[in-house]
Amino acid sequence: MNYNQEQAVFLQHVGELIRKARDYGLVLTAGELYRTPEQQALHIKNGRSKTMNSRHLVRMAIDLNFFEPGPDNTLKLVYDGDGVARLGAFWESLDPANRWGGNWPSFKDTPHFERSQGAFEAGIFSQAGAGPFGPRPRAGGANCSRTRWGQNAGTCPGMSNPYKNS
What we know:
- This protein has five helices and seven strands; from the N terminus they run αβαββαββαββα.
- It has two domains: 117 residues, Muramoyl-pentapeptide Carboxypeptidase, domain 2, CATH 3.30.1380.10; 31 residues, no CATH class.
- By secondary structure, it is an alpha+beta fold.
- Helix 1 runs antiparallel to helix 3.
- The strands form two sheets. Strands 1, 2, 3, 4 and 5 form a five-stranded antiparallel β-sheet that branches.
- The chain is globular, with a radius of gyration of 19 Å.
């Protein structure tokens, strides 16, 4: 998959995760998706992260806040518990590339959900090379050569949209 496809799969899985949280008695709010290198450096300095190779830097990680509803309609912030652990297991069951910070051996980060480095980032597929949907189309002029998957589908000769329902 190319980078945009990896991000699309990641966000589809985040959507499934958010929907599944209700089944486990959790209410979620958004934490962080994207970080600049400067923000990441501050997280390291403050002890909230251990690496400058965070998946947040490439928009392939999200931190979520977990709440359990109380009897008086209040929400209690939680970082562990059965619902959180089940949600982490669900995340990892969606795809072998998905990792949950609650399963890390040393630095537990239960709010953290990420997609590990995929085929595009590892260099298995180049932007101009073949991918899971076949070779990237190059025919049809300059605009087509810059067209990303899923955009302007059908306007360039040989271009198809792998996300379009047939």
